[in-house]
Structure formats: C-alpha cells, structure tokens
From TrEMBL:
It comes from the Eukaryota. Pfam families: dCMP_cyt_deam_1. It comes from Escallonia herrerae. One of its GO terms (cellular component) is cytosol. One of its GO terms (molecular function) is cytidine deaminase activity. This is CMP/dCMP-type deaminase domain-containing protein. Residues 119-210 form the CMP/dCMP-type deaminase domain. InterPro entries: CMP_dCMP_dom, Cyt/Deoxycyt_deaminase, Cytidine_deaminase-like.
Length: 210
C-alpha cells in the first residue's frame, strides 16, 4: 500500500506491470492529505511528516475494512508498516489485526542513540551551530564526526530561500567538506541527530574511500 500520489507516479513509470501474473500481490493506495500536483517530483518531506499522521488513519482504516469484507480476497492476517507510519497500529488494533512495525534505522543512527548521552555530557550536543542557522523546513539536522586523529568536526543542514529543497546542503555533506578543508579525510565515528535519508547514505557510501 502507498499514497495515491506515489501510486500514480508508479503507474506512469510502467513499474506497475512488473508484478503482472502474481495474483497474490496487489497494489492499493490511500490519500495522504496533500494535493495531487502534476509532475514527477517528490512531495515536500516536511509537509508529508505533518500530513500523514493527521490524514491517513481514516482512509487506511477504510481500506482494511474493505479488504476484510471483499469477496475473492484473502482475509487480512497481518499489517507490516514502516516505523513512521504509526497510525497503522491504531487501525490494526481496532480491527483486531496483528501489526508489525519496522524502524529501519541506519548503523550511524543507532550509534547516535547509543552515545547521545555521552555527547551531551561532553557538550557536543545539542549542536550550537543549529541555534544560529535558520532551517526552512523546521527539521533540524546535525552530525558530529570523530576523525582518525582525534579531532571533532560538526555539520548541519543548510537551506536557502528561493531555491528548491534539493539544492540544500545535507549535514553529512557539510561535515565532509568541513573535515577536508581542515586536512582530514577519515572518520572513526559519526553521530547524527536523526536517521539519514537515502541521499545522505548514498553520499557517505560514495565517498567512503575518497
């Protein structure tokens, strides 16, 4: 199951036919509360974070009820959802369906949770730089890196008025640039304020041996 906006993008990409012949697999879509704008582009991340918890419970509950009573459709035996889709827990509990919630945090995100208390005790967190830089999307992101020679570098996300969100500088990109400018190219530990998105993970992966 996905939202209607992404489902429409999926159909336009011809990927919806990739599962033809698999009668036991079906796509379903619900609205996420945001307008269906034209164009092949991602909806605003911050707007999605605010809209999904408020607007997706009712349509998801209706979808589960419909699936449970539809002829020719096996009964819903379990709901497997992403960790940020916590509204699915409430809907599944109301209908008596087990729910499995996956929180797919990254390794560096896990380290952040494990060592955050120590960073607070040493004064590295919360990042002071975050208090001086405005964040357009209201999602504050920061990263701390321990270099191979024992120095500590920081990075924060940078966003610019009048430019698309994909022109932003991610905290990890800030961190790597900061360290290279100071003559260091290797980190032994990274701690981030939130789980990195796919773009940030890809950036770190591509520069791991640079």
């Amino acid at each position: 199951m996905g939202c209607m906006y992404n489902h429409r993008r999926l159909i336009c990409s011809d990927s919806a036919t990739a599962l033809d012949g698999l009668s036991s697999f079906r796509f379903a879509a619900i609205p996420n509360g945001l307008p269906l704008v034209d164009g092949d582009t991602t909806q605003g991340t911050w707007l999605l974070c605010k809209s999904i918890p408020k607007n997706c419970l009712a349509p998801f509950r209706d979808l589960l009820s419909e699936l449970k009573t539809s002829e020719g459709v096996p009964p819903v035996s379990c709901v497997v959802s992403d960790g940020v889709m916590s509204f699915m827990l409430e809907a599944a509990e109301e209908l008596g369906v087990p729910n499995v919630l996956f929180w797919t945090t990254s390794a560096c995100g896990f380290l952040a949770y494990a060592y955050y208390c120590q960073l607070v005790e040493k004064g590295f967190m919360p990042l002071k730089v975050l208090r001086t830089l405005s964040c357009l999307c209201a999602l504050h992101m920061g990263v701390v890196g321990l270099s191979s020679d024992g120095r500590v570098f920081i990075g924060t996300n940078l966003e610019f008025l009048g430019t698309p969100l994909h022109h932003s500088v991610h905290a990890e990109q800030f961190l790597v640039t900061n360290s290279v400018m100071h003559g260091d190219r290797r980190f032994t530990h990274l701690v981030v304020s939130d789980g990195p998105c796919g773009h940030r993970r890809q950036f770190l992966q591509e520069f791991r041996n640079a």
